[in-house]
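Q: Hi! First time doing this. I have a protein sequence and I read that you can turn it into a structure. Is that right? Here it is:
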Amino acid sequence: MGLSPKARKTALGGVVVASAAALTAFGISAALPSSAAVACGTLFDDFNYSSNGDPALGQRGWSIRGQAGGPGVPGATWSRDNVSFPTVDGQKVVQLRSTTNGTAGGTTHAEFSQSSRRFFEGTYMARIKFADAPVSGPDGDIVNQTFYTISPLRYAFDPIYSELDFSEYLPNGGWGTSSATNFQTSWYTYQADPWVADNQHSQQTRSIAGWRDVMATVANGEIKYYIDGQLVGTHSGKVYPRQNMSIDFNQWFIDLTGRTPGATSTWQESIDYVLHVKKEALTPAQAASRVAAYRSSGTTHTDNVTADNACTPGTTPPVTTAPTTRPPTTPPTTPPTQPTQPPTTAPTTAPPTTRPPTQPPTTTTPPPATGQAWAAYVGYTTGQVVTYNGARYQCRQAHTSLPGWEPANVLALWLPI
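A: Yes, that's right. Below is the predicted 3D structure, encoded as structure tokens:
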């Protein structure tokens, strides 16, 4: 992951959604109380938009970054004009364009986000066309093409900070590598200055140019990463996410090392679709089948994902935005260039740092009876009573407990009684 989180978190740190006031102080996206079961929902978007000014983008929760800041080259511009919706290989896509002429003032980045923080456990999948060379201009730039989820960092070493990098592809190397490398990184926390990172990572040292199915499942204390249906990394322990996150795609230049100012290079990353199925860990074949079903029915968008993590998976709630349809189209058919391989070597520049993970339970424990001892990885409901260190607490907000969320530590979730 290297330097990537430094300013990206800073830039996104202010992106939040409304939650219970007491929880906001703790940065916890816990479930809201409800008298009835809440279904978890699915997000599917085929990116059938007319332009970056299409009003449907904002109505459906998408945002295009225009504000200055990191990550990447200091002084570079994040331009709304760098996000477009062309047809690529017969399919409508969202396309991120980044450019550089070797100077900070001549460098532009792109970012496209589903910024409402309601994404936690479940399946994430996107079909992405990565590039090994610019579409124009000289090659050799240290560029990063990404797909990830992220929460704000409240302060250095924030213990509930959460980020999952499903794919960070560096076609010309970087972060200690000198050739095409793809990273997956699960974050516990970090400090920006001086730089200290606490995470687990996997990497594939080979090209993944062309269309790729990038997928991850987050369930039962494990994050599993896939490229084209092949498992390339499994992370667990303290890096398991602790709060809701946004979904993001961006493309940016890590630095201008070795770049001589002059001609402008233009890089493109295209995303065919994105799928998230909350609290369901699908196989790659099952996820592909879900996408195929939407496309065969002509559905180009549906989104009924709740922010409530005490939701019930596998049911269909009322949609938050009505599904839209069009005549079915054939997905891109560009074949994979080569299968990916398991991680090999770690980067040597600003490397991810880890400690031995503590393995959580493989399944969520059923809620204990009233008055039983508090435990981690348990789904608690509003009003439920537990004991902790000899004291009794009543649950204020439905949530799934995690290490560090002991009742005495998180009074936004627990009321002493």
